[in-house]
Specification:
about 160 residues; alpha+beta; about 35% strand
Length: about 160
């Protein structure tokens, strides 16, 4: 395990973020070799401490995904349905260049690229998909894929 240096201006939350990142890296390496099932397990086990938070609702005939992306502009968000059970959300938050040269007493906000693949509770289709972005909150609505119940058996 990596040693965490505790400086005079570090907070317990920065230490917690470092610890969570180390745990996530270990889970990623441990679950990386077990294929698609690993993605499903990883989506449920690995916390989103370093990335953004996501809510997933299984609502009647659709799946609703809401992601908090504070400080991100609409132009810097990409949403992609990778397969019927996985939605990828990627974003970039630009750093504030006028503050980069200053000596910070505390700096907890993160900048850069964030990406997350979300496991969906049901298979969905890209038809009639809708996404909106307002005040740093992304909402994606996906219709569930139609599932046929039963099979017709031809009579000879």
């Amino acid at each position: 395990m990596a040693r965490i240096e505790r400086g005079p201006y570090r907070t317990i939350w920065q230490d917690f973020d470092d610890l969570m990142a180390e745990m996530e890296n270990r889970f990623q390496s441990m679950l990386g070799g077990i294929g698609a099932r690993g993605e499903e397990i990883r989506g449920r086990v690995v916390p989103a401490a370093r990335d953004f938070r996501v809510d997933v609702r299984d609502h009647e005939d659709e799946v609703i995904i809401v992601a908090d992306l504070p400080g991100v502009e609409k132009e810097n968000v990409a949403v992609r349905l990778t397969d019927p059970r996985h939605l990828e959300i990627a974003s970039t938050r630009a750093s504030e260049t006028e503050e980069e040269g200053r000596d910070f007493f505390m700096r907890e906000r993160t900048y850069g690229q964030m990406s997350r693949t979300v496991l969906l509770p049901a298979e969905v289709t890209e038809e009639n998909a809708a996404a909106s972005f307002k005040n740093g909150v992304l909402e994606v609505r996906l219709k569930k894929a139609p599932t046929e119940i039963g099979t017709t058996i031809p009579i000879e």
